[in-house]
Amino acid sequence: MAAAFLCSFAGAQADDALAAFEREDYATAAVLYRPRADRGDAEAQYRLGMMLRFGWGVDKDAAAAAAMLRLAADRDHPLAQAELGTMYRLGRGVPENPQEAARLLRAAALAGVGIAQLSIGRMYRDGVGVARDPVEAYAWFQLAGENSVMDGFAFRAEIAGTMTTEQIAAARKLAAERARK
Q1: How far apart are CA 127 and CA 106, in angstroms?
Q2: Which of 1, 95, 114, 158 is deepest in the core (most CB within 10 A)?
Q3: Per-residue DSSP letters for the chain?
């Protein structure tokens, strides 16, 4: 009976945190998410990390945001991986590290995060943190576009002009394989 009550209470607290976050009452959300984040809840760590990154309801602190997002990313939270990857790409709260950015963004992209698909596509297009690879870039741009990140289709069209017919066919096949996963 006590365990059921505690689970019910924890679930209600989680709902209260999400409700506060969604109504942009970030100060309340931060208070409610902090204990859950400290207990290892990846969603709470992600949301608290975002609040720290942008100063929503808490003091803006890029280093603390990166640390909190790292905890969630290490628990395979795709949105945390995408955000932390961006922070490594830009050197915000962490030292700039294109290889770590690519690793995190690729993980998030494979999980279906559209903006991460666009970002890793740009990294493959430009050879930043990864070897330049137009086939990879095209495939990621295709997937980003399919995930409603419209810049993906624009970048795909742009890079297609530099590719052979065979490379485009390989990229389309790669994108289709990833889309099925």
Answers
A1: 14
A2: 114
A3: -HHHHHHHHHHHHHHHHHHHHHTT-HHHHHHHHHHHHHTT-HHHHHHHHHHHHHTSSS---HHHHHHHHHHHHTTT-HHHHHHHHHHHHHTSSS---HHHHHHHHHHHHHTT-HHHHHHHHHHHHHTSSS---HHHHHHHHHHHHHTT-THHHHHHHHHHTTS-HHHHHHHHHHHHHHHH-
Q: Which two tokens stand for residue 65?
A: 């945001």
At residue 4, the pLDDT reads 42
Angle between helix 2-22 and 42-54 (nearest 10): 30
Give the pTM.
0.89
